Amino acid sequence: MFQKEDKKKHSLGVCIPDMRKRSLVSEDEKAAEELTSKTAFRVSGIFQVQDTLMAKGTLFKGVLKTKAKLKFNDVKMTVKEIQVEGKDCETITVGESGALFLKPEKGKSPIIKIDDILEF
Length: 120
What we know:
The chain is mainly β. The protein is built from one helix and nine strands.
């Protein structure tokens, strides 16, 4: 009358680690070696606020201070403000993520895209 039902056991499978060779040097470190400038910033987002560009990203080479100048696509720009974690700072160092407020020369606006590298 009452028969015991056979319950099927489900195996969890086998976990095989990925043994492919991985590079010990990150892409940013490779890019830093190829650059001739002292400071480099990789853009992860770009926004225009009136006549100022806000570039979000990570500094992967050097130290960047306010009033630093750069030339990108033949347009000269000046760093007017730096924010790290939403707070105003005078400098940003290697590995820190933040936002740079860039003031291009009058009447010009460069086209900056995600993953572009700004060299100072």
